[in-house]
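Q: I'm teaching a short session on how sequence maps to structure, and I want students to see two examples side by side rather than one. Could you give me a first protein with its sequence written out and its structure tokens following it? Keep the formatting plain so it prints cleanly on a handout.
A: Of course. Example one:
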Amino acid sequence: MFKAAVLLSQQYNITIEGKYLEWQTEQIGGNTIDALSGTYQTISASNIVGIVGPEFSRETPFIADLAQKVGIPVISYTTTAFDLSNRNTYHAFDHTVPSDYSSATAM
């Protein structure tokens, strides 16, 4: 879905401050240290304005902390850990699926 939005923005010449939206992917395979290292390297070498991901809840607190330190938002499409819903701790993070706790409460 994100890739489609980027492609449409390019097709219709939609820019932010004169620059087209772009994306970059990193395959990290669930290893927290690799996730943190890869994210740091990508942020350092590019003009990253936000992060979509990571895929696993165990990586997310570290990526969210790093992104918060450099001032960019993170949105995850799969993480469900309840702790990640704490806006005081993770105010630059959001997820598109409910936490495990919210899902269990709804049942």
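Q: Perfect. Now a second example for contrast.
A: Example two:
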Amino acid sequence: MSTHRSKKSVQQLKRQHHVRQFFKSFGLLVLLVVIVGAVFAGIMWKKQATQAQLQQSRLQYEHKKATPGNDTTATNTNWSRTAMDQLKLGDLTKKGQGGARLTQLVTKYGEPAKTKKGSEKGHAIKTVTWTNIDSQQSNAKFTVSVVNGRIYRKQLEHYQLTKRATQISVTNYDNFTLQTTTYQKMTADFGKPDTFEESLIDGTDLIVGHYTTNIEGSDTASIRLAFSNDVLIGKSQVGVE
């Protein structure tokens, strides 16, 4: 009788052991499924996030490419007269706020031929000069002054316009009236000056234009005009007849 009970107890212990092993194995299986599911979910989330980032980068690139002035593929483009005239200036005393960025110009027109550091009105500045100019004059050059990475002055030298609608006579010159004649009127009637310098400082936009072509008079005839905020404030001439 005792032997029979012992065998029965052993069998019960074996069954209990098998049951525990089953639940233990089942628990491990469930845990494994949970872990695999979590890993798979993480992989899918990372894949979706990467795709979203790639899509955003592509859209940003296309937007930048389509935005004027952001063409990062153009290098060593020659400066045209139109590009020089349209180059926006910022005010020196406001650290060039609103002016064109030097980095964008370097991207489009290449590294300048010359760079020089200095100071003006207590601001650290630098001037950079390009010689890749659309001009018949091989020594033409375009210089900009920079504060805080932005342009506040531009200057074109040794440049000659090949066409001018109307020759400038001494009578025309005499009719250029201080505090009355405007730069817009002057350029509308006689075209742009051959060379110029323009700066924006303390809220004053100063343009000094130099006309050297299509002038009635001697071979070396020239006219110099200065405008402050579009209004003529000074003039001089040599050899105009």
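Q: What should students look for in example two?
A: Point them to this: The chain has two domains: 1-67, 81-240. Also worth mentioning: The first strand starts at residue 114 and ends at 120.
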